[in-house]
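Case study.
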Amino acid sequence: MVTLTCKLLFPDGKVVTGKMTAESPEGRNPVQYDGPVERLSETFDDTTVASLIFLFRDLARETGAAFSSDMEGEFDQWAE
Amino acid sequence: MQFVKPILFQEAIDKLGSKSVIGSQLNSEQWAQIPTALRERAFFSSTIENVRFLQRAQDSIGDFLSGARHKVMGPDGIEREALKMGSRADFVKQMSAFAIAEGMGPLDSKDKGGLKDITSQKRLNLIFDVQTQSSTSFGNWKQGMDPSVLDEFPAQRFIREVDVKQPRPVHQQNEGVVRLKTDLEFWTAMNSPAIGGFGVPWGPWGFGSGMTTEDVDRTEAEALGLLSPSDTPQPVDKDFNEGLEASLKGLDPEMVTKLQQSFGSQVEIDSATQTARWSAGVRPSAPVQPPSPAPAAPVQPATPRPASPGARGEATIESVLKDLGLEAKPVVTAADMANLREELKEAAPAQASTVLGRVKATASGALTQEAIAEHVQEFLNFLPASLVEKLPKLDIRAASMSGRGSYSMGGNLKIDRDLRTDPDQARRTMFHELMHWVHREGSPAYQKLIKDHFDARTAGEPVVHLGNYRRDVRGKRDKWYEVYAGRIYRGEYPPMGLEVPTRYIEWLTMKPNEMARWWNDPDFRETMKIVLKGLF
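After joint prediction, the assembly is written out as follows.
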C-alpha cells in the first residue's frame, strides 16, 4: 500500500495538501484535500498516484506555490 | 561481520547517470558560482555548449564505470563480446574524434593542445578523471553511509594521494586528520568552493588537489575519542542531500531558466524565496506551462477514420493531430482530447467475437464474459482491422493472481479476478495487457520504434530499482510519466521498452481533463505520440 501526500506551500504560508492511498498504480482512488482548495484551478476527486503528483506539480507552476510530495510504502499489485 | 571494502559500485554508476547534461558557455569560474545543489547534479564542461558531445561523454563514462559490453566482429569474422569503453585512453580517442567531427576545435590556435582545446588529450583526460573520481568518490561515500559499514568504519583519514605543485594550505594543515564520516561540516570545508572545491563532503577535493580519504575502523576511531563503544553513528547522506538548497539570488535569469529546463522536475524552484530544492522526484520533468486550459468547449463531432483498412491512405498520428488543429496548439483542452479520442477510433474495427478465443470470466461484475468482450471491443476500436488480423487469438482468463494482470506470448492474457469489483481499473488493466498483445505480437517496425525511443530517452542512465515497486522491479527511470514505463525485465536484453506502450496507452482510459493535463506536458506528449503510432 502506498500513501501519497502532495503539498503546495503558498508564498503567504498557506498550505494545500492532497492525500491518497493506493494498492496499485493503475487504480483510481479518492483524494482528500485540505487547506484553501479554492486557490486551485482544478482538482481531481479521484485519480491515480502518478496523476495526483502531476496535477500538484502543474498547479504549483500555475500558482507560484512550492511543491513537495511524500510517497511511502510499496504497491501491492500492478499490471505487468 | 568484517567489512574489508565495498564491492558493488552501483552507487557510482547511479551518481553519474543521475546528472543532467547541461550545455553552456559558462567557464569554470562562472560554473563555480552556480550553487552546489544545482552544479553537483549537472554534467557539464567549461564553455561546452554542444549537448551531443556532453551526452556522448556521459554515456561513455557510464559505460566505463558499468563495464558495459557489446558485440564486435573480430578480424577472423567471429563475433565476440568486448568492453564498450575500456580505458581513459579509449575515452580520449573516441571523444577527440567526436569533437573534431562536431567542429569543436579551439577558436584560437594558440589554445590548441591545451585545456581550452576540447579535442586535446589534456582536456579530455581532465573530464574523464573528474567525472570518474566524482562518481566513484560519491559511491564510496554513499556505501560508507550504510549503517553496517558506518558502524564498522565510522571515520576516515584525509590523506595525500598524489604530490601536487600547489597544495591548498587548508589541505596541508589537515593531512592525516581523522574525522567521523558524519562530520559534514569538516568534510564539506575540505571541499569548499572558497578553495576551488566542489562543495560536497566527498572527493575529488577540488581540481588537482591530490587528496583522498581512507577508512578508519571503529577501534581506532574510539581510541581517538571520536565516539564511544556505545555510540551508533547514524547515516547523514539523506540529511546532506535534503539539505541542499540553492539560492538563486544573483544568478543570471537566463541561466536560471536554462537550469530549470535542464533539470526539469528534479528541482523545485520557489520563486518567493528565490531558492531551488531537490524534489523527491517520481514525476517526469516539464518546463513551465502556461496557465490552465480554458473551460472545456462542447465536444465537436469528429470525422471517423476511413472504414476500409485499405482506404485508410496516408493517415498518421501527425495528420490526425494536424486535422484537429492540435499539432501546433500550445495548450489543449478536455474537449480537444475527447475529439482526439473519437478521431482515433476506426469506423470499421475488428469485432471482439472474431478475436476472442477461450474466455474464463467471473460470474458478476466487471469481468463477466460480456464485460470482457466490451473491454476488448473498446480497445479494438482504436486498431485497424488489418493490424488485428495479424495478431494471435486471445485467451483471456480472470483468475486469482499476485499481480493485476499479465500477458504471455501467443495471446495469453490474465487479469486479476478481484478487479471485477473495480470497473475502471479492470478497463485500464485490460488496455495495458492488450497493448502488450499489439506491441509484442505485432509489427517489428513498431517494436523497433519503441526500442529506439527507449534507448534514446534513457541513454547513459543506470538500471535501478523502480521506487515504490517490489525490490526486483528494476529499470531506467528517465522522465516517464510513471516510473514503471522504464521497467527492464530480468533476461530482457537488449531492453525493448516493453512497458512504454502499455503504460502510455492507459492514457486513453483517463478522463478528458486528465488527458489534457498530460498532453500539455512536452515529455509526456513526445512519448505518447510515438506510442500512438502503434494504432495506425
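Observations recorded in class. Residues 31 and 250 of chain B are 13 Å apart (CA to CA). Chain B has a mean pLDDT of 84. We will return to this complex in the next lecture.
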